């Protein structure tokens, strides 16, 4: 048997794992390789990988609700914009470079849905609807009052009001003050002009003395 000690052992070749996609994620100067099974590649998993990347590269970022802040773009040097938004998991292919953009907008500043907790209410004083500004008519159970913020509404206006309850139980002046609308201003004018004023009474008294 003749042994050829001068030959090096063969170097094993790197085999591509079927069903796996390998790409790069980058944020600023930080870059890393990501490997994901194609069956698990979704927009949600991409966002999770991006969050893990940011947490790893910038452990002291201190950002809350990071998933809602991230935007993903794919580098495409054949495109005029060079950065194309990732709208589907199929946009990520082998060797792709995904740029992670962190939005400066605070997700907590977004509009929140806060429905009103309305209940039928009987009012003892003239009350006006906080939606349309018109008076709540009737002897009892004239309208709806929100248990969260204390605002008052017509039953017919209940389905129109926005979901913006403050839950502060703060009372508006609508129970005691007439809203500044043309209808109500004319009503005030009719009310004040229907009876004698203090000036009229003084004139009558002067005539009686003469």
TrEMBL record:
InterPro entries: C1-like_sf, DAG/PE-bd, PKC_DAG/PE, Ubiquitin_PRKD1-3_N. It catalyses: L-threonyl-[protein] + ATP = O-phospho-L-threonyl-[protein] + ADP + H(+). Residues 174-196 have a biased composition (Polar residues). Keywords: ATP-binding, Cytoplasm, Kinase, Magnesium, Membrane, Metal-binding, Nucleotide-binding, Phosphoprotein, Repeat, Serine/threonine-protein kinase, Transferase, Zinc, Zinc-finger. PANTHER family: PROTEIN KINASE C, MU, SERINE_THREONINE-PROTEIN KINASE. Its EC number is 2.7.11.13. This is protein kinase C. One of its GO terms (cellular component) is membrane. It comes from Medioppia subpectinata. It comes from the Eukaryota. GO terms for biological process: intracellular signal transduction; phospholipase C-activating G protein-coupled receptor signaling pathway. Pfam families: C1_1, Ubiquitin_PRKD1_N.
